[in-house]
Predict the structure.
Amino acid sequence: MRRISSLFISLALAVGATTIATGNASAAAVAAGTPTTTTATGPAAVAGLSIAGVTSARDGGMYYAYQNASGDNYSLVKQKADKTFDATFGTAEVVTIPGAPLPSGFGSRRVSIVSDLNNKWWTVSSASGGTGNIVAVATGGATGQPTAQANFTFATLTAACAAALPAYSPSSWLIGTANLFAKRTSGVWMTFFCSGMASAPLNSTVLVALKNDLSIDTSIPSVALNEAQGSSAQCLTAGVISDPTGTATSPEIWVVRLEHTKRDQIGLCSFPSAASDVAGYDTLRISSTGVVTRTAIASAGDAFDARFSLRLDAGGRPILVGASLADSSKIILARLKTDGTLDTSVFASGFTSLPIGAAPAGAVSVNATIMGIITSAENVYISVLLTDQERSSFSCSGTTPLAFGYRTAVISYANGYTSTYGTNGVSARVTYSAPEKTICTFLSGGSSVANTGNPRIAYTNGTNLFYTEWQRPSDATG
């Protein structure tokens, strides 16, 4: 199965659920689509700490980062594929990793974790904005302490912004959220937000390559993912995926961009909430050396406008799944060819829609995110997370409990829903609540497919860490 790293930028796909069950039922005794949820009890050193980040390890386990009670550091722990915590990892099952200091003591902070092809872990922590050392990175082996740590200075990051955005000369910059993606060779890819504050660029995502020593590899050009690259759209919202296992001649970074006209009250590009905002879609294929190739894939007025997330199938083709902007009771499915154009071999337009029913009672929105690829056959099974929430805005200091829910679906590009999974391909909805401030730091993550082929997700209510796994279809393997 292809191992990939992805992120949908500029959209908080944060949800969680809990259907508390005990024990580990055998696959033969559990119907496909049935969730089993456990409360994960980490090492004693992280007891009572809040979860801040999670990702899948390439050996089938999970990495979790906990925010320490004082200071800016995190405690990183590793859960093995059998769901026990790795006693050989770090000291007393914990590795201390750096966190970005909050500018002037306010704002929010996030941490991103990625596991590379050698099963090394990488982390990056970033604050919501400021002009200090706001990005801290670390890397280490499958066990043991970090082999390298670094803080990026404001000057280093703004130099990368300027290199990727040469058409702009703002009087000052604002640096935002950073994320990591697995790389084909040594090092990792990192994205972060660059804003010209009161002048352009208002909000652009910049991609850079990091070396093993955690410095920016200046031999590979930095790329502004939200800039034109040949598009005439006013606003571009990018979904990003890396392909670390592809051939040397295939793109290493894929970007699917929604072209739109949606701006907020102060002129910043915001995510469109209606099909009427959408102007079209394009793709960026970025080589290992930073060469960018743009391809337009859909124009304005398409009936299949959606908030797309993406994964790569066994042939290196991006699969796109998203919640419809025109009809909240549907999700949209599409596939790209390796040249970046829409695959019309199954659907004449390249798109199709699948019903998900009305939004659950009390929910204001439903998002669809690909969790992972269950099989690597041509008739690929795609695991999809359907998330909903009761409010569309949050306070980063608010403590009001909010309800969150999700369902999972298993679909294939050729045949739609897998009828043996749940009810007509969709599991029952499970719910939980968390303080609204939790969404500003961490709510859920690690949405993936386990080595067994079971869809899984780890999430928190602000205090406890939960792990839910759904039984895969009987004819699917990981």
Remarks:
- The chain is about 0% helix and 40% strand.
- Residues 87 and 93 are 5 Å apart (CA to CA).
